[in-house]
Amino acid sequence: MSIRNGDSHAKHPHARYHDGVALREELAPDLAPVLGDRVQLQQVMLNLMMNAIEAMSTAPGNGRQLAIRTRNQKLDVCVAVEDSGPGFDSQSTDRVFETFYTTKPYGMKLGLSISRTNIDAHKGRRWAARNEHRARDTKFTLLVYNESRA
What we know:
Elements: E1 15-18, E2 21-26, H1 38-55, E3 65-72, E4 76-83, H2 90-95, H3 111-121, E5 125-130, E6 136-143
Parallel strand pairs: 2-3
Antiparallel strand pairs: 1-2, 3-4, 4-6, 5-6
Helix pairs in contact: 1-3
């Protein structure tokens, strides 16, 4: 079966495939609304997803898994981007959102620091970690919309 041809949906029926990357969405059906700049938040998601895809560039075609998860928390909404790349080392998890820091040999080294700026501007939190599969997780939260905070 070829992932590139989209024929492997039998293996992962809830995933979509593009250029050898399986995208799995696990989105909360009752996600609370957040207040934010749509363009800035789209930029955050684009940066996190592109960073994840680039991190998986050396993985075999059928091993490239990208998951986007959302969930409600008490006062905020959590968004997680998980990939099956090589994972972060302990030093990297503390530094990935720093300007000009990268674990890759190429790139502008600005994408995740721009994400940090946008998330911080929305009073959110962000962090990176290795998940239980020894892969990469980047997460951020945004405050739930509340008229008294608007």
